[in-house]
Amino acid sequence: MTSAMHSSPPDRFVPGTFTPRPGAGAPGRMLAAQAGTELRLALRNGEQVLLTLLIPVVLLVGLTLLDLVALPEPRVDSVTPGVLALAVMSTAFTGQAIALGFDRRYGVIRRLAATALPRWLLVAGRLAAVLGIVAVQMVVLGALAAVLGWRPAATGLAWAVLLVLLGSAAFGALGILLGGTLRAEVTLAVANVVWFVLLLAGGIVVPVSQLPGPLAAVATALPSGALAEGLRTVLTTGAPPGLTPVLVLVAWAAVATLAATRLVRLR
Amino acid sequence: MSVRGLVKRYGRTTAVDGLDLDLPAASVLALLGPNGAGKTTTVDVCTGFARADAGEVRVLGVDPAGAPDALRARIGVLPQGGGAYPGVHAREMLRVVAACAAHPLDVGWLSGVLGLDACGRTPYKRLSGGQQQRLALACAVVGRPELVFLDEPTAGMDPQGRRLVWDLISALRRDGVAVLLTTHLMEEAEALADDVVIVDHGRVVAHGSPAVLTAGEQQELRFRARAGMDLDGLRTALPEGYGAAEPIAGRYLVQGRIDPSVLSVITSWCAEQGALADDVQVARRSLEDVFLELTGRELRT
Asked: Residues in domain ABC transmembrane type-2 (chain A) (predicted)?
């Protein structure tokens, strides 16, 4: 064997095939490609769909039709805001954390970080995918709730959109913090446990007003309680959500973002 | 690309210890060494994923520290072990990476020629090691980069896949792309590289073209003949600096530059002994021998 073994130009690669022509792609195309792929992946992953759509659908129907938790009539008006908050938490926090944990394990974050994709787009792509799934959830769950007799206060809808965006930011930043720092298996366990605890004790299934005193105080300061209570207020009364839920969500988003920018690792 | 005196430490371990490299355009540089020699660390520093503790690194005229966007747009990277979403289809992944480049290669063509079409709708995590590796390679070249870093590009591949990768690397070089390749496979470095840098414990132990590294005085001649011949006469007949031995009964080894006059000394000595030299082979050192000689260790450990 000698260096004369440099193969004569191989037939399968015509000369000039690889002539350098470097350059970064257009930001819009990069964003669409990354977010679109992550959105598709989430929608064809059975466990993710169970978490983001099936469980909220079952809870919406179950809590509306069965008298498991004491709620004012019409029950659907109290249940729906909680389920919408759950949907945001499932996608932006639990789903995002688990996906990021395994994405890191399989090296895709590192892979994308080695392309011309700017760092801010890498994060923006993930958040865009999250918002895409949240939009699908809001449409599906809202339509189903309407079938069950839900009639939200029309003046509260714009507030609801704002709260959902803030909730996505707070839960999304927490999800990125969790999935971006721990091992995939640990992330999976923590994200599911936190989801379950917040579901039952964080003001989602049981409204904050019906939780025992100290727990209610804690739940008010949690992103789950803030989002669920804020949505209950704006969607049932049409009035603004008040300052507390907004500040709680903004604070969680800010703290988690700050921590994530320092602690998240590519793999 | 040029690297001068690169040092990289992880805690108390020094992964790279004063490394120098040069890689001109349209050429292939192989970093050859055993696992843990510092090859991947070197690639990580050159691609901006790790910061050098000392030394000067210039990649396409730019300091790669922090992996600036403008630099990443000009290089292609195959990180060790590849990388993709666990549930993604090969072609989907290639499309995402292609979208990050201004003038990417045609994704359909590239996935066909690299045999990725056979992966179909199989999620990435269920692809074979060789298929994952071919996808990683496609991702590294799809953006038509000027400089490509390939960290163990044929790891986990069958011989056919390896042949394909070798063809691809030759084509890259022919078309003007510079390639930095890490490998622990001798054949790979010998077959592809213009320049080989042998590293061990983070240091360069040898550097040169495969021909230079393996040529020179360090040739040997092996033959078979009747066992137990007296080698003293042969040692006297050979010029100064030559060695002769019978490592295994009936197998003889002469070390030194083998030219026609030396060959005739050997055959006439055999004739004097009434023996016929059989199965005569003149062998050049392989890079494997060079590594063994320089480090006292086998490469594949």
From this structure: 43-267
